[in-house]
Write a structure and sequence with these properties.
Elements (H helix, E strand, L loop, with lengths): L37 E11 L2 E10 L4 E8 L4 H15 L6 E4 L3 H4 L1 H9 L3 E4 L9 H15 L7 H16 L13 H7 L1
Parallel strand pairs: 1-4, 4-5
Antiparallel strand pairs: 1-2, 2-3
Length: 193
């Protein structure tokens, strides 16, 4: 007997330059001193019964306020673009906004890049293997999972959607105090500006 091994590999259907990661501009940028100067976005996985659903969020790095989010059953570019569209609609930032993301393919996709170009956004990405480059969003996900999702089970995506909406709109942005904001809520911190 002789073992036969076939080659196992994935072919990239898109050209590599279309999926090229961008440099990390946050390393050289000063901290934001007002709203809509720097945003950060990422996606997390949430267990729903025996399957996974996905949550994309956009945070304003000045106030840590969640300004866009979307929950979906599929992890694709539509998910991240939906959260970004919500953020653009709610804030309407001036050209030159810096958006920082991880190196996920959903942020490198052609449609996502076109959306960012339409809004004249400068896009920045994490360095390879450096998830701490996007620490603010990772911290939000940890807080959300610890305060809302831990030891709670949701049966339907509709039920989960309702609870996440309430958490973000009625608690995180409006009532939850942040030590990094001088023990103010994101909404209060922006109002003082």
């Amino acid at each position: 007997m002789k073992a036969r091994v076939s080659r196992v590999y994935r072919r990239l259907l898109k050209r590599r330059e279309e999926l090229k990661a961008l440099p990390n501009h946050r390393l050289v940028e000063a901290k934001p001193v007002g709203i809509d100067q720097q945003w950060s976005s990422d996606v997390t996985y949430i267990r729903l019964g025996r399957r996974w659903v996905y949550l994309a969020v956009v945070l304003d790095l000045y106030s840590r306020r969640v300004i866009g989010w979307q929950l979906a059953e599929r992890l694709d570019g539509d998910l991240s673009r939906g959260a970004l569209r919500q953020a653009f609609t709610s804030r309407q930032p001036a050209p030159g906004l810096l958006l920082h993301t991880d190196r996920g393919v959903e942020y490198r996709a052609r449609k996502t890049q076109a959306l960012l170009q339409r809004h004249q956004v400068r896009h920045s990405m994490n360095r390879p293997g450096q998830c701490t480059d996007n620490a603010e969003v990772e911290s939000f996900f940890k807080t959300l999972k610890g305060e809302l999702l831990h030891a709670t089970s949701f049966v339907t995506i509709r039920q989960l959607l309702k609870h996440i909406r309430n958490y973000i709109d009625r608690f995180y942005n409006t009532q939850r105090l942040h030590s990094g904001l001088g023990y103010q809520t994101p909404r209060e911190f922006e109002a003082v500006m």
